[in-house]
Amino acid sequence: MKPKGETVLKRVTEDFMGDSGAQPGLSAEPGLASRAPVVDIQGLSLTYEAADGPVYALSNVDLQIEEGEFVSFIGPSGCGKTTLLRVIADLEQPNGGHIHVNGVSPSEARVRRDYGFIFQAPALYPWRTIQKNVELPLEIFGIPKAERNERSRRQLELVNLKGFEKKFPWQLSGGMQQRASIARALSFDPKLLLMDEPFGALDEIVRDHLNEQLLKLWDKTRKTVLFVTHSIPEAVFLSSKIVVMSPRPGRIIDVIDASHLGRERKLEIRETPEFLKIAHRVREGLRAGHSYDD
Ligand code: ADP
Ligand code: MG
């Protein structure tokens, strides 16, 4: 008998990624995607109705993300970073404004399986091997066994976990588990990788190492990545664009281009004047946002 949790996961995964029967990785006209922004947000607002009154989570957010960008979202806790990612992924409905993902609504993009989501906790199933965890979305999508096998091995190799296929999650370190969850998100070839503080729970040395690996992965896969973080060095090191957000109501207060740092970056880049200049601007933005809330 299958453990109960898997049935729950199947439901969650279907709900999250849609279940249209469409083949993963076979979505949208390629020509369109390269011309229009992958994410196009205009005047977006979202208010939660909480028991003690409304929570103005996002206010008048405008944002365009081009194909292949690595975009970090940075801002104080509670400023709406997770909410914004969830709106893009069709997990929350905005109250106002417009949002398009690859030229369609977030719900259509979800049905098309445009999203791969990676959370702070790796959420791997302890009774499944690493490979079987990576294959789970593919099983749910009804991909034949041989192809599942081939794809999961390829993704595990991409995150440097070759040789760990038959291990169970608890036999791997926290950083390796998070890499396995990245492989799982990549397994159905989504157009967008949405990462919500994926390395927040890891120590700094592991995080540095994963940051370097993630950059290489981004370069190899050419995915568009949306990445939430609390860390200024992490945001600057990884991103081609940094979105600085203010406390409630979450607004975008600065969008910083960091593409001139190049796609191939070594950790040492953090000591260069170009890097420090961007980090300084992020810090200034965060400070300005804070005084607004006082
Ligand atoms: P961040 O990820 O930047 O820490 P969130 O997007 O999680 O911020 O939350 C933004 C604000 O909205 C916070 O004040 C949070 O408490 C509130 N919030 C988030 N989700 C809900 C919800 N489902 N109901 C009510 N308030 C919420
Ligand atoms: Mg959050």
Walkthrough of the structure:
With 294 residues, this protein is α/β, with parallel strands linked by helices. The chain has a single domain, classed as Rossmann fold, CATH 3.40.50. 40% of the residues lie in helices and 21% in strands. The chain has helices at residues 4-17, 30-35, 81-88, 106-111, 130-140, 145-158, 174-186, 204-221, 232-238, 273-293, and strands at residues 39-50, 53-65, 70-74, 96-101, 115-118, 192-196, 224-229, 241-245, 252-257. A 6-stranded mixed sheet has the order 5-6-7-3-8-9, sandwiched between helices. Strands 2-1-4 form a 3-stranded antiparallel sheet, covered by helices on one side. Strand 6 (192-196), helix 8 and strand 7 (224-229) form a beta-alpha-beta unit. Helix 5 runs parallel beside helix 7 (174-186). The longest helix has 21 residues, at 273-293. The model is unreliable at 8-33 (pLDDT under 50). The structure holds adenosine-5'-diphosphate (ADP) and magnesium ion (MG). Adenosine-5'-diphosphate binds at residues 48, 50, 55, 57, 75, 77-83, 248.
